[in-house]
């Protein structure tokens, strides 16, 4: 368990954060630029002065009452920042060897060859860092951090300088690391899609304060998240087992409550698990099953909540058998369909509007 109760200042900015996060797993710090994500990271790493208490799995790094303030290098945290900060006078292999030398006899749980394979660095070991692309430098920086055998891996917006296509190329490597190692990870981002792909736990940060925390699925209905991402990007996060995939048609079928959800296959594997964001704007509601439509997904459910979403709209939460979808509809639709808790409806979702990502969950 990561436990944090700290205050800190950077320039004119004040942080006051109290939170816990389960370990192992990926905890995402999510919020807009300037909200305090990096300030919290620097307090965790001991890079900036902070007051309060920080501990990880029984290791106390900061405790004012006991006058404990462990030096950054003794916390054994592997850090990757926006700039990879590789040594320019060494090639890739030399940068990685440097990390190995700094372990100083501590037990190694991350093997060199395994990391090279997971991050696809086999052909880069003799390259000078000046000749690497931005994405390659990021992968080398992550490998170097892992080879330091850290208790905690911290990734502070490591892909902020990369465009969307380059980020999409690198995220699968992080998914491999998440699935391979039982290592606590902190992932800092203001990209909601990245958080959904990687995180098992999320801390929402606004104006230097943790305003909400929980799993992505639980937080998908939190008003604080809607405030951060906007109603147009709000939706439900669901997890389910991949029942089958049709590579010819490019579709996979994922269990969802007492129904099934069809979506583009992407990297989903039969028998594995998937996490899917179902945008509220792409969910339609009807009072019965529909025929003659191109929509691939129709799920029977029950309205469990109706939340006003001004101006002129509402968010309708629908239980479809233990998991929830959410639809954004007009106030007029709420009145005409008499949408209220207990109302039986069908949720219609276009397969093309969904994106699923492999995730080591337990499904539902």
What does this molecule look like?
The protein is built from nine helices and 21 strands. The chain is of the alpha+beta class and 364 residues long. The chain folds into two domains: 2-229, P-loop containing nucleotide triphosphate hydrolases (Rossmann fold), CATH 3.40.50.300; 236-358, RNA polymerase II/Efflux pump adaptor protein, barrel-sandwich hybrid domain (OB fold (Dihydrolipoamide Acetyltransferase, E2P), Beta Barrel). Strand 10 and strand 11 (209-214) form a beta hairpin. The longest helix is centred in the middle third of the chain and has 17 residues, at 164-180.
How are the elements arranged and paired?
Layout: E1 2-10, E2 13-21, E3 25-30, H1 37-45, E4 50-56, E5 59-63, E6 68-69, E7 77-80, H2 92-101, H3 112-118, H4 134-146, E8 152-156, H5 164-180, E9 184-189, H6 192-198, E10 201-206, E11 209-214, H7 216-219, H8 223-229, E12 235-246, E13 251-256, E14 259-264, E15 273-279, E16 283-286, E17 297-308, E18 313-319, E19 324-330, H9 331-336, E20 344-349, E21 355-358
Helix pairs in contact: 2-4, 4-5
């Amino acid at each position: 368990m990561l436990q944090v109760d700290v205050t800190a200042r950077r320039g004119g900015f004040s942080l006051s954060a109290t939170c816990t996060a389960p370990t192992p797993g990926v905890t995402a710090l999510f919020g807009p630029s300037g909200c305090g994500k990096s300030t919290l990271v620097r307090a965790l790493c001991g890079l900036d002065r902070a007051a309060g208490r920080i501990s990880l799995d029984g290791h106390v790094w900061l405790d004012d009452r006991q006058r404990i303030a462990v030096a950054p290098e003794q916390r054994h945290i592997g850090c990757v920042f926006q700039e990879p900060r590789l040594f320019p006078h060494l090639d890739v292999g030399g940068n990685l060897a440097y990390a190995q030398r700094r372990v100083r006899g501590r037990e190694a749980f991350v093997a060199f060859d395994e990391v090279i394979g997971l991050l696809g660095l086999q052909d880069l070991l003799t390259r000078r860092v000046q000749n690497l692309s931005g994405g390659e430098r990021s992968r080398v920086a992550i490998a170097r951090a892992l080879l330091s055998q850290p208790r905690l891996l911290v990734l502070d917006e490591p892909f902020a300088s990369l465009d969307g296509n380059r980020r999409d190329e690198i995220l699968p490597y992080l998914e491999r690391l998440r699935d391979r190692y039982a290592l606590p990870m902190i992932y800092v981002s203001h990209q909601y899609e990245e958080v959904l792909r990687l995180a098992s736990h999320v801390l929402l940060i606004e104006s230097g304060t943790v305003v909400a925390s929980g799993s992505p699925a639980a937080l998908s209905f939190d008003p604080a998240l809607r405030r951060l991402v906007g109603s147009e990007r709000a939706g439900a996060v669901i997890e389910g087992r991949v029942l089958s995939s049709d590579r010819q048609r490019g579709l996979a079928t994922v269990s969802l409550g007492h129904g099934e959800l069809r979506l583009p296959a992407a990297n989903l594997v039969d028998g594995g698990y998937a996490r899917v964001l179902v945008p509220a704007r792409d969910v339609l509601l009807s009072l019965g099953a529909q025929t003659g439509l191109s929509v691939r997904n129709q799920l029977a459910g029950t309205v469990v909540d109706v939340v006003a979403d001004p101006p002129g709209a509402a968010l309708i939460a629908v239980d479809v058998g233990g998991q929830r979808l959410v639809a954004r509809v007009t106030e007029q639709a709420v009145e005409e369909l008499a949408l209220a808790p207990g109302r039986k409806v069908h949720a219609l979702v276009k397969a093309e509007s969904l994106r699923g990502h492999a995730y080591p969950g337990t499904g539902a």
